[in-house]
Amino acid sequence: MQITLTINGADHTLDLDPRVTLLDALRDHLGLTGSRKGCDQGQCGACTVLVNGRRINSCLSLAVMHEGDAITTVEGLSDGALSPLQQAFIEHDGFQCGYCTPGQICSATAMLDELAAGWPSHVSPSLDGPCELTEAELAERMSGNLCRCSCYPGINAAIRDAKGHQA
Amino acid sequence: MTIRIKLDDKSEDRADSLAQGLLGTPADRPEGHLKVTGAATYAADDIPGGCAFGVLVRAPGQGALTATNADDIRAMQGVLAVIRDPRMVRNSAQGTANEAPVQGVDSAAYTGQPIALVVAESFEQARHAANALKITADGPPGPVDPQAVEPEGEPDGQGDLDAAMADAPHSIDAEYTTAGHSSAPMEPHAAVAAWDGENLTVRASLQMLKYNRNELADCLGIDPARVRLLSPYVGGGFGSKLGISAETVAAAIAAKELDRPVRVVQHRRQVFETITRRSETRQRIRLAASSDGRLTGLGHEALVSNLPDESFAEPVTQASAFAYAAANRLIGERVARLHRPAAGSVRAPGEAVGVTAFECAMDELAVQLGLDPIELRLRNIPEKDPQSGIPFSSHMLAETLQDGAKCFGWQGRNPAPRQQRDGEWWIGTGMAAAFRVNILSEAEARITLTAGGALVETDMTDIGTGTYAILTQIAGEALGLPADRVTVKLGDTEYPPGSGSGGSWGAASTGNATWLAALDLRQQLASMMECDERDLTLKDGQATCGNTTRALSDLLGGDTLTGHGHIDAGKAFEDVRQSTFGAHFAEVAVNDITGEIRVRRMLGSFAAGRILNQKTARSQCHGGMTWGIGMALTEGLVHDRRDGHIVNRDLAEYHVATNADVPPLEVHFVEERDPWAGPMQSKGLGELGICGAGAAILNALHHACGVRLRDMPATPDRVLGGLERL
Known about the structure:
Chain A is α+β, with helices and mostly antiparallel strands.
């Protein structure tokens, strides 16, 4: 099928097997390999990208479903300079092997927007917001992204640091 | 020239006298920018032109195999080949095997064994065709229950443990079990193989390239010199990428057959089956003690399992040989030969599960004695290795116990269980000691020095452990260069062979080789400065000797100097006992209604010689401690009782710790210098953090609610059962 995907602000026209996932389209057809495949079944979060600003597991979505969507990958987060989150991940050692890192950073980028918008989580005291970035909120909201190196202390410190810069 | 050292004796510490001030600092990882932008290239990322895509097929059962519709599969759209080649491997090779693992596809020794590769023009076509390939297995499954077979092996004894147990006023005789574990690195095992005539290049995800090259060559029946492996970035290993594995061998075979590059990436569910797991363990631990808490007897016997023809047996009792003094001892493993997926090294093989169970038993003894558990350990620190009588290179258990206790706020703890409540939660604290043997493995490194800076090259890998960072720091420190003038290139068999990453030996082994390469350069520079190497100060690109200072760029001009370092373990690893030490502390909350355990905080105090980078070392310890949480509470492979296959073979069913499972973690280093460990005087740290961490949690569980669980993971059903039995 011929489709056009809008990725990091640029249009890409592709002729794809309809079985190609969004993740494989990015990685294998467009060379955007920053999005990683850790499980190919929505369990690890390494493939997290932003679709119209919302984080999704790109391995669980077919590429052909995304014509007209604004897709942002890790490659689209830094415009020359690193984003505050990316910089903070380096400073706080929010990664070791680095494989889950683009997914963590994409996920955290959207998570901070969700928090600012007052979207509640499982641990929020109220469904009506506003939401604060407590330890519990941060851990809950980032638990869809596994890190087997277990850099959660660094990841969380980095997110807090970047949130501080944002505010 | 090369500076080559075989470590037979103590080494002089040179690093403290160097001037750059880079070593030991919490420097950022030099490859960090590549990792946070997604630009670091892992094994599957670089697809060459004309690449075909392969998907492995698993055996649905055991015994002789028949593919009943291979011709139909070959006719499917895009399919290029259905490969069932006798050179394909049964399971991944054991660490440092240096030769092919068991090969063959005609029969399956375990359910889930990789037995075919379907290759197609696209991944989607290959996956579809692989799913459609019908394989029948005719055999009944072999034995899969560790307790249903006669195991191999016998423990070693000293003195008379039975008599010591009978005579002792206090004793523990209990059985502990730990479930099997999966390394589950975030990057699945992957390979892109391409031939140029008779020369093979494979981008793969591997920990130990110099061994892996020989293993792959042996699998294929070719000269290792014709094999080049590339693993510049490895998405986690934890032992699972020590040896060559099914996808790499299959990709190489397919690429040759099709005369085009082939990529094979294992699906997560395949990784769980084809890559070696940590064996489940059943451990009988006996402790005999005098009334003042001195051990008179120590027994640690373990039953583990593995497939036939696998040399590896989880060395559960490795640290029990030297952890505590006791005159009467019985220590060792037995191996049950089973037809479960193969077992091999997973982070801290041996101590991860062995120290954990043993430290639970020590806690039980402390409670029985009415003695503080830290004091019990302090009273049993051996003066020499209790089994062999050789001295310790350094012994830091007391220091880490005391440091950890102070930082955690252990003093004044009410030892009685079931004393603190927070709503429906019981609150308690626990501790455990940490031990991990220190190993050094032969390693080489080369440094090329020009006016612009230094280039370090070795086939060593960085699997997240911080190799890029620490080799940058060692070379920069030794050569007086800031970090941004040092480039480290890793993961290419064209470079001098490093130690590979495993057994916590990477930093000390390849780090020392890098130091020796730098020393080689220092001697050359000293000669150019007409002074003794020891009188040479190198800092910020300047060489100073006496009253003379010259810029390196001036000294070198357009010349290039090359230094080569080569280190190997000698008698320093036979004549003394080398280990790292630590202390774990945990506070847990146990839900009285649901049996859920939440870890509220953890603290580890560790000693591992010189800490090369405070930041990356800390992260390694965070990782180990978190694995301890997983082992204690959630991780466990479940085998089907009929055919032994792994039932929970993905990340939704096998529960590694998530962000929400991990509380604030505190790590302290009790820094020391271990002269026996080599010129850098640093020891391995990547695995120490997991050794005993789970015991601190289970001991805290007992302190919180009075439930003593001896089976890990301590899932809520087990905790609830314990609460009901109180």
